[in-house]
Design goal:
The structure is a single chain. The chain has twelve helices and 14 strands. With 313 residues, it is an alpha/beta fold. The protein has two domains: 94 residues, 2-Layer Sandwich (Alpha-Beta Plaits); 212 residues, Vaccinia Virus protein VP39 (Rossmann fold). α1 packs across α2, α1 crosses α3 and α10 packs parallel to α11. The radius of gyration is 19 Å and the shape is globular. The chain binds S-adenosylmethionine (SAM).
Length: 313
């Protein structure tokens, strides 16, 4: 099976655009391969060791190097885990979450007692992870623009035993009026979801440059509001599950050009690659080098992009 040929057949414009970004056989081969299943153990409900002991009787587990509570999981001998049939899932002891998607809350470093804004929170895997690090002390405003997705968010927060989240349904830009308010803000932005192709080829079939441009506009609006809402000295984490430079480096560069935001290098045991500093004739600030760009072949995960931004005091 030649993955490049398969993607060319699925969506030629998609193939051509991202070949300019990464033409390696590995990029296309990993994008074609189903993503490994992974879970996060929810320490709000039980000690990590206890859940791990239960699970290791029935599954093969391998630690996710960048998250203490994260594990790749598979049934002995291979196959897929059916979370619907897993009692630990129904009890909220375990949260299925793609391994790269566990990075932004680790980078955010929320602390008990803080006030956190999760600007685009549904279905809530990162909100539950944030609550876990806060040990259910403090307050998380978990917002999503879509009411039906907010309902799923509420169900997931309940199952995970999160007691400190207040769910709101707003365009994230609304929070720009709460200037200098939040200790930390996570903007896990809506995006064209190229990284999700490993979960579902529909993200390749339905991809178009219009989708990228549509999301870029929303991301710029949201990142400015997120930065405004942040307290001086606070941390904003911007993340997407896509590889497009217009939705990643260009959005961060946009914020750097318009505000006094500073970028910080992300130090985690995760393999990344050089961020894109020039795209379609535009050059981005060299500061953008501090962001984390992950392609699927780097750690055998979905593609991801993460930026750690600080507001000076
Ligand atoms: C990448 S998903 C978030 C995933 C979530 N953070 C998690 O880890 O489970 C992006 C979310 O942004 C929401 N969204 C789209 N436009 C928005 C806007 N203008 N303001 C706030 N949320 C928005 C979508 O409904 C979607 O749920």
């Amino acid at each position: 099976m030649n993955a490049k040929e398969e993607f060319k057949k699925m969506n030629r414009a998609f193939y051509e655009r991202y070949s300019r970004l990464d033409d390696s056989d590995d990029f296309w081969a990993y994008l074609f391969k189903p993503v490994r299943q992974s879970i996060r153990i929810n320490t709000l409900k039980a000690p990590l060791e206890l859940v791990l002991e239960r699970l290791s009787e029935r599954y093969e587990l391998e630690p996710v190097p960048w998250v203490r509570e994260g594990f790749f999981i598979r049934p002995p001998g291979g196959g897929t885990v059916n979370f619907g049939e897993m009692p630990e899932y129904s009890l909220g002891l375990v949260i299925p979450q793609e391994a790269s998607s566990m990075i932004p809350p680790v980078v955010l470093e929320p602390k008990p007692g803080e006030l956190i804004l999760d600007m685009a929170a549904a279905p809530g895997s990162k909100t539950t992870q944030i609550a876990q690090y806060m040990e259910n002390e403090g307050c998380i405003i978990a917002n999503d623009a879509k009411r039906d997705r907010a309902n799923i968010l509420i169900a997931n927060l309940n199952r995970a035993g999160v007691l400190i989240a207040k769910v709101t349904v707003r365009d994230g830009a609304y929070f720009g009026r709460y200037e200098n308010t939040f200790d930390r803000v996570l903007l896990d932005a809506p995006c064209s979801s190229v990284g999700m192709v490993r979960k579902n080829f529909k993200f390749a079939y339905t991809w178009s440059i219009h989708k990228v441009l549509y999301h870029t506009r929303i991301q710029r609006k949201l990142i400015l509001a997120a930065y405004r809402a942040l307290k001086p000295g606070g941390v904003l984490v911007y993340s997407t599950c896509t590889v497009d430079p217009l939705e990643n480096e260009a959005v961060v560069d946009f914020l750097l050009q318009r505000t006094d935001a500073k970028l910080e290098k992300i130090k985690l045991p995760v393999k990344g690659r050089e961020p894109i500093l020039e795209w379609e004739g535009r050059e981005f600030s060299p500061e953008v080098k501090k962001t984390l760009r992950i392609h699927p072949q780097d750690n055998d995960t979905e593609a991801f992009f993460v930026a750690k931004i600080r507001k000076p005091r």
